[in-house]
Every structure is written in C-alpha cells, then in structure tokens.
Specification:
Elements (H helix, E strand, L loop, with lengths): L10 H7 L10 H12 L4 H13 L6 E5 L6 H14 L4 E5 L7 H7 L5 H11 L2 E5 L8 H11 L6 E5 L14 E5 L5 H10 L5 H11 L3 H14 L9 H14 L6 H12 L5 H6 L7 H8 L4 E4 L2 E4 L1 H14 L1 H20 L4 H12 L5 H7 L8 E5 L5 H14 L14 H8 L5 E7 L4 E9 L2 H4 L7 H10 L4 H7 L5 E4 L3 E2 L4 H15 L5 E6 L2 H10 L2 E3 L12 E6 L5 H10 L12 H10 L4 H4 L5 H8 L6 H19 L4 H12 L5 H7 L4 H25 L8
Parallel strand pairs: 1-4, 1-5, 2-3, 3-4, 11-13
Antiparallel strand pairs: 6-7, 8-9, 9-10, 10-11, 10-12, 13-15, 14-15
Helix pairs in contact: 1-2, 3-4, 9-10, 10-11, 11-15, 12-14, 12-15, 15-16, 16-17, 16-26, 17-24, 17-26, 19-20, 22-23, 29-30, 30-33, 31-32, 31-33
Length: about 725
Amino acid sequence: MSPPALENVPCHISELLQEHPADRPATIGQALAQRDRQLFVGREGEIAAFSSWLAESANGPKILSVTGPGGVGKSTLLRAFVRELATSGRSSMFVDGRVVDPSPEGLAAALGARSKDEATDMLAATRSVLILDAFEDLRPLTHFLLQEFFPSLASDVPVVIASRGDVTAPWRPWRELVRVLPVGGLAMVDAKSLLTRRGLSEPKEIEHIVSVAKGHPLSLSVAADIVLRGGVMRLLPNVPEWHMAVRALVEDLLRDVNDPVLRMLLEGAAILRQFDESTLASISPGKDISEAFTHLCALSIVRPGPHGLMLHDDVRGVIRDDLRWRKPEYFQKLRRLALEHYRRLGRGSVSREEAAWILTEATYLSEDPLIHLGIFSADDPSELWTEPAGPADHERLIAIQASFVKELPERRERPTPEELDSGLMQRLFNLPEARIQMAWHRSGEATGYGLALPILPAVLDQLPNEGAIARIARRALESGSAEELRRDCISTDAWFLGTVVTKSELAEATTSALSREIIRLFAEPRMFLACTADPVYSSVLGAIGFQRLEFVPPAGAIPGLTGFVLDLRLIGAEIFLERLATGSPLPRVPPLSTLETELGAALDHWGDSRWLATSSLCELACLLLRVPDENKAEAVHRLVAEALRRAREAAPGDEQVFRAVELGYLEGSPKLEIAARRMAVSRPTFYRMRKKAMRAMVEQLVALIRAGRIGDMPA
C-alpha cells in the first residue's frame, strides 16, 4: 500500500513524516505514538503511583482504578503507563471500551483471542498488564469480569481500569484488591508546557489560554488549535469556535446526566466554589432538589471540600464558561441568588472563622479575572492545603525564605527590602504577634508561607525605623515620626501583609492557596497595608479594593516599590463582601477621625439639599439604604435620622441631648439661640448637648456601617 498523501494527513503528523529519514516514523501509527510522547507533560505523581502499585502488585492490590472526569487525560496517562511498561521490559494489552463490543466474545477478540480461556492464557504467558480504558462503556461486562474473567487471571497479571467514576465501589468482595488513583487537571506549569509543545510560543497567548482553560487538558488542546488556526491572538471568550468546543466538552462531561433538575444543580454548583444542599436550594427557589442532590453527590466530577462539596476545578470552569455564554441572564441571576445567600449567612450570629469562610466563598462569585487568577487559579484541597505555622516550622520557613531570595532575580515577585533580610525575617518568624500560614503539598513538603504583621510596638521594635514597612505605616496612620507611630498604632488595628513567598515548584498553586488565607483576614474591620513593585500583584491588590499609598521608598529598595492601603474599619463586612463579589468600587467612607465633623456639617446644612448632595456621607448613605444615587440628599436625611433614632434608643436617659439636635437642626429652627431658649438652657449648654448627641450618633453610624445595611427602615 502506498503511503497517504501528506496533504490528507494532520499537519503535526505530516511534519513528523517529513523529518530526517533516520528519525522519521515508518507509519502513521508510529507518528501518532511519537506525537503522543511529545505532548505528554507532567503527571510525575501519577506515574510514580503506578510504578509503586506495580511493584506491590505481586503481594498487594491487583486492580488499579484510574478515575477522573472526561477530557482530564486518563487515556493519555494510560498510554504513558504502556510506555513505562515497555521501557521496563514488560508487555501490556490495551483495550479501549469505546470501540469494543461489550460482550465476552468482543473482549476476547479485542485481546487477539478466540475465547476467554485463550485470552487469560495469553496474558499469563506474557505476564502482561491488562489495561481497560473507558470502563464505563464496558459495564455490561461487569458480571462476567467479576465472576469469570478476573478470577481466571494468573496472580502475576495486574489489571488497570480507567473510568469517569470509581466503578469499583460496588465490588464489595474485590475492594481490598483495588487501589484508586484519581486524576485531576494539569498544574499550571505543565499546562503551559503542553501549549508550548502544541506549537504556541507567545507568552501572552499561553497565559491567556491557561487563564481560560485552566488545567483541563482537552480544553487546553482545543484552545491551542483554535488560536493556531486563527493565526492571530484573539480573546477566546469572543471566539465562536471556542464556545462551540466548550459546549461539546460540557455535553461530553454530562453525557450520563439526563435529569433536568440534576443538570440545573450542576450549573448552580459551577457558580459556587463549594456547596451543600442548602446552598444549592437557595439558588434553586421553588425546586425540590433532595433526590437530585443525592445523585449529584455520586458523580465523579464532585469531590469533598473543606466546607462541603466541590466540582472538579477544571470541570467547574468549563461548565461556568459555557453557562456564561449560552445563558448570560440566567448566569447573572444565579450569581445574584448566591450573593444574597452569603449575605443572609453573614447577617446571622457567625464566628470569626465562619465570617472568613463566607467572605472567601463570596469572593469566588467575582467576575474579575485578576481575582480568579491570583486567588482561585489552583484550588484542589487534596493536593495542597494551608495551616498556621508553629515553632517547629521555623527551620522550614527560613529555608523557604532563603531559597526565595536566591531565586528572586529570575522571579516576578518584588517585595520590600525587609522581606529579603534573612536575619530580620528570622526574628519576625519568632514573634508571637505574627500570623504565619504555611502551605503543604500532599507529599509532606512545605511549599510556601504568607506573613501578616500587626503594626504594634513589639513588631516595630524589630523593623528599621526608615524601612519601607515603617514608612508605609506612618503614611497610612498619618504619624509624623517613629514615636508618634508607636503611639498611634495601639488604637488603629493596622496589619502589614507580606509578599507570599513560595518555592519555585508549585508556585502558582501555593500562591493561590495562601492568597485565599489573606482574603479571610478581610472579614475583620482592620486597616491592611501592602507593598510591592510587582505589577501583577499590584493589579490583584487593586481588584480587591486596595488604594495606592504614595510614600518615599528607602534607599536601595527595588525600583517601582509602591504602598497600598485597604481600610475596612468603617466598611462593613456585608458591604465589602458585596463589592468584592460584584466588582464595584468600595464606597468612599469618611475616615473615623472626621466622621463627627462630616455629621456636624450635614446638620449645619440640613435644609440645603444641593449642599447635602455633595456631602461625603452621600455614597455611604445610598449604599446602606440601598437607594439610587440620584436621591443623595434624601439618603443623608434618612441616614442621620436613623442614627439619631438608634442613639436615642441606646440612651433613653439622654433624651434632652437628642432633643437639642432635633430642635436646633432637624426641625428647621432659624437660629440655634431660639432652640436653646425653647429648651430653657444657655447657649454653651446647648452646644455641649449637641456635642454629646453627635458622639452618640457617630457610634451608631459606625455600627450601621459595620453591619453593612439598614434593615426595613421607613422612608
């Protein structure tokens, strides 16, 4: 037979066939196998687990169950197993369940035999490893395999099966012979390597595809083909071919899901980072989801998380992107329902831990790509997790910091000079006031840390007075000197958030996990400071809500070092949660030190609607009252009246001081002297009463701001 014309062969195969004769594959099959080897990246952990299982299979488990959602690369991994076996001199027999007749005769024929006995004899004679891919398509054979075929296999013939779910779960008599190997998406570094091997070379193209397709191998491959076919870089969400490909991926992932309620729950689960039945019920109003939720829990694409269940990270992204494209209004409706669910949870009596969890989950609702890239780009709790560092971890912290400093010229991070000073960092690690979170890989290796320092005298004692951190703190707290800073910081509750420090391996996943820990800190009403010269980190800080804080960096600092501040002391948890989830800017809230002054100015101009519409209380009032911006003056009136009402209820014995505010301002007295005479007090006494009332009202304003909203208050 003559070889096929090259124009009828895929381009990457034709390239292989045109290579130097000594390297050129003899057949298209060999070219495909060579291409398969070239495109195989990562999976070191899975290969090691396979080798370990194989070594133990003589006396241990005889069946390896490889599980994972469609498109995650199970078949590619099985072919890598075949190559590993060939390298070690061991043979294998590979059966693809998608192309085999699921009958005893069909299985025997796929193995090159005429009967079950001949097939088992061949496997025994060659000591082959039997590999059954797409096992879900062989389910009609389950009884035959368990009752006849597997029991007939020689003891030195291991079996590997691959399926979307763990099909071995019901095999009760066989369970002790089974080891399960779950397969997830590719790590970010491996995803980028795959795209490079598929022919992409532009870093921006690669970064964009990884941000859209995550670590899902099939999605990455489809995206690469679309970009390469187009010849120019286009944003994938704007490319029709990408959406059609994603739609096909979703249908393939959900091909066994026929229940419309179950599909609805999957769409809802894709909006959320973690979920339980109550969360899905809250975004599925009017639906009885109990039976469908039970089925959802059994799907292979669902795994346990720290606070409930999670869709497989890559699958979640594919379903989410498809839903955003096909049903944008429904997608936004689900986000709104989920946000309202988290609002309701936050309004209840929650612990600090629960408040931090609620904020993290609400942050996932954000559509800001920077937030997803920096905080949720890698999210697999079974692979990598965080926990507080203890005294026993100090040596590891020191080693990670030293490695980070050594690699810094080749890395993106640009921290403060203090964070590069090993001696100083060792002292900070030992401070009981410091909050240090460490990231750990499932192998037991520590992969990074995040450091948060309270601005307190004990911490300032360790920091150089003219260092970047102290300068930023002085600028944020408006302290004129180191001595003033030591005095001011005691009542401020300010924290400095250090650069996330990671090893170069697993850097993206580690940064993502530790960044989620930083988000948890924002559940508390504090001032947060940060400093970096890294434009990516700066952009993520801006997306969260940090404002640039101009300061003069110390001599020798990295060029471009910029300070940032996020003052949540007067921003309620609900306001911050909502703004973070929706991407809208944080309200301009008057500083605590000027809130009484702003309230006094509003009272002085109580009858001037035009002036009140320019008050710094306007944006805050509109936000708390959930009224449109065009009703600014009315919102200020209602906010001040509500603060007065609450202050009055809190201090019934001070009725006279609150009456002074009503007579002097709210009821439109032309002169304060007249109001004082009506109350039968002197003018100085009237002003003292006004002062006391305003302080009580400011306390209530602060409480309202931190609550994040005013309830069902009459207009």
